[in-house]
Amino acid sequence: MADCAVSSFLGLFVGLLDRVTVRYPHASDILPFIVSAICSFVAMSARIAFGDKMCWIGMTFGGIVWMLPGLSITFSVLELGTGNVISGTVHMFSCFLGLFTLSYGMVAGQKLAMALWHNHDVIIKLKCDNHASLWLQLAFIPITISMCV
Questions:
Q1: Has residue 94 been placed in a domain?
Q2: Has residue 91 been placed in a domain?
Q3: How far apart are CA 85 and CA 62, in angstroms?
Q4: 79 contacts: CB under 8 Å, gap ≥ 6
């Protein structure tokens, strides 16, 4: 549950940072790298401080999930499917560059936290061991539907 609070804080931080960078057009070009590096740094620092209770990958993606180019990839695949090869390829390549920027920021933040806290023995698990209770899992679908309505 503690990693949920950290993920919420990171998501709020990323949203506020996005609102601030709207005023500065050149800052939005480097925003994905900076945001993913900060989220990864905070998540890895929490993982080092609190141990296996914290899920590094879950906390990191909790902050930057809305920056993933899912809709852009969908549109580029639609363009490729309708025969617009040049436009679809350019948009797909642009999406992959955005994904590379996010992933590079995640690795940079992780390595910075490990170097700053002098802890290189942390084992990074992509599948976290701590699961939500059965009641929370059953309530997930109604909560999600009520938030979407």
A1: no
A2: no
A3: 34
A4: 87, 88, 91
Q: Is the CB of residue 37 less than 8 Å from the CB of residue 109?
A: yes
Question: If you average pLDDT over residues 57-80, what whole number do you get?
Answer: 88
Query: Residue 44 domain-assigned?
Result: yes
Token pair listed for 60: 């990191």
**pTM of this prediction?**
0.78
Degrees to nearest 5, angle at CA 25 with 14 and 69: 50
- Give the N- to C-terminal CA distance of the chain in Å, as an integer: 26
Q: What is the pLDDT of residue 139?
A: 79
More confident residue, 48 or 137: 48
- Residue 108's SS3 state is helix
How buried is residue 75: exposed, middle or buried, by Cβ count under 10 Å (0-12/13-18/19+)?
Answer: middle
